[in-house]
Each structure stands twice: as structure tokens, then as C-alpha cells.
């Protein structure tokens, strides 16, 4: 899987699409966030921290901090408190992630954030399955690889067991 934060152009394309999608789903309009080369390392660190938080959230351990995230609380006309991201570049992305983390935990959708069961992958994903039973970020890629390895291991065991049985049986010529 390609690293979407590997270079500035790719990261900017990913962020533009992601912000547009998030704005539509959250009903919160966001202006374009412009990234710089300095933001790339901070975004990779944020991704690693978020992955750690998702991986260990059910183990009662404290998680990473979002030290560069700044959030403002505004009281809307209807009296509801609305959290708004602040800053630019990676700081703004960190603010949005912080708001969404808070919201997901409050709405009990946080439990749907998981880390892919394929140890070679480790991608965090949102489990959209009806019963929250998803294991892989992409069943066709990671699930298929795991299932194929398990199937081959079972066949090797069956083959080894049948080889042992045939070696223990008396030969037809004795």
C-alpha cells in the first residue's frame, strides 16, 4: 500500500479529498488546508500516534498526546457548544483529528476504529460491518493473504500427518 504522506504533492491530494469528504459527513465546512514540507513529518507522527491510540485503546493504557492540536469551543445560536479546529497545516489536521477522536468516543463509534489484523499491514481502519466484526482493513488484500497462509499451513499439516501414517503402516510386500 503506498504511503499517502510520502511526498508533499501526494499528501496535499490526500488531504484535499479527505477534508472535502469529512466536511460533507460532519456538516462542517473547512477551507483548504495548505501543507508545507515541514508538515509531512508532523503528519506522519500524528498518524503513528493515532495508530498507537487505536491499537491500545481497549487495554486501559494512556495514549499519546496531540501537542500541536489547538481547538476552540464556540457556543452556537441554539446554545450547543461546537468544537472548531485551529491553526494551519499539520496543526489544523491535528485539531480535526482531536475533535473527531473526542466525538467518536462520546458517540461510541470509537470502538469501530481498529488496526488491521494482518501484522504485516498495521493500517488503522473504520469497521463498517454491521456487527463490528471486521478484522482487516481490506479483506481482499490482507484477509486473503492471511487466509491463504492458514490454508497452506493446514495442507502442510495434513500432508505431514499422512506421511507419518504411511510410514507406520506395514508395506504390502512384507
Report on the structure:
The protein has four helices and four strands, in the order ααββαββα. With 174 residues, the protein is mainly α. A hairpin with an 8-residue loop joins strand 3 and strand 4. The longest helix is centred in the C-terminal third of the chain and has 30 residues, at 139-168. The radius of gyration is 24 Å and the shape is elongated.
Task: Please summarize what this structure is.
The chain is 50% helix and 9% strand.
Top keywords for this entry?
single chain, 174 residues, mainly alpha, two-stranded antiparallel sheet, two-stranded antiparallel ribbon, 4 helices, 50% helix, 9% strand, elongated
Annotate the secondary structure layout.
Layout: H1 8-26, H2 37-56, E1 71-75, E2 81-85, H3 89-106, E3 113-115, E4 124-126, H4 139-168
Antiparallel strand pairs: 1-2, 3-4
Contiguous helical run count:
4
- Average pLDDT, all residues: 83
Helix/strand-derived category reads mainly alpha
Task: For the largest sheet, list the strands in their spatial order.
Answer: 1-2
Considering DSSP H and I runs of 4 or more, what fraction of the residues is helical? 40-55%
- Major β-sheet annotation: 2 strands, antiparallel
Count of distinct strands: 4
Run of helices and strands: HHEEHEEH
Amino acid at each position: 500500500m503506498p504511503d499517502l504522506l510520502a511526498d508533499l504533492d501526494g499528501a496535499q491530494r490526500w488531504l484535499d479529498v479527505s477534508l472535502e469528504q469529512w466536511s460533507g459527513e460532519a456538516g462542517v465546512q473547512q477551507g483548504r488546508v495548505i501543507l508545507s514540507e515541514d508538515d509531512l513529518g508532523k503528519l506522519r507522527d500524528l498518524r503513528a500516534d493515532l495508530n498507537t491510540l487505536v491499537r491500545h485503546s481497549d487495554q486501559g493504557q494512556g495514549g499519546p498526546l496531540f501537542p500541536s492540536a489547538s481547538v476552540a469551543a464556540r457556543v452556537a445560536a441554539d446554545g450547543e457548544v461546537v468544537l472548531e479546529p485551529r491553526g494551519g497545516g499539520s496543526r489544523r489536521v491535528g485539531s480535526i483529528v482531536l475533535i473527531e477522536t473526542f466525538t467518536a468516543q462520546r458517540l461510541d463509534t470509537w470502538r469501530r476504529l481498529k488496526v488491521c489484523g494482518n501484522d504485516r499491514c498495521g493500517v488503522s481502519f473504520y469497521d463498517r460491518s454491521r456487527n463490528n466484526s471486521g478484522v482487516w482493513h481490506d479483506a481482499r488484500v490482507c484477509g486473503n493473504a492471511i487466509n491463504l497462509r492458514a490454508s497452506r499451513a493446514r495442507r502442510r499439516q495434513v500432508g505431514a500427518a499422512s506421511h507419518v501414517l504411511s510410514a507406520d503402516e506395514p508395506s504390502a510386500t512384507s
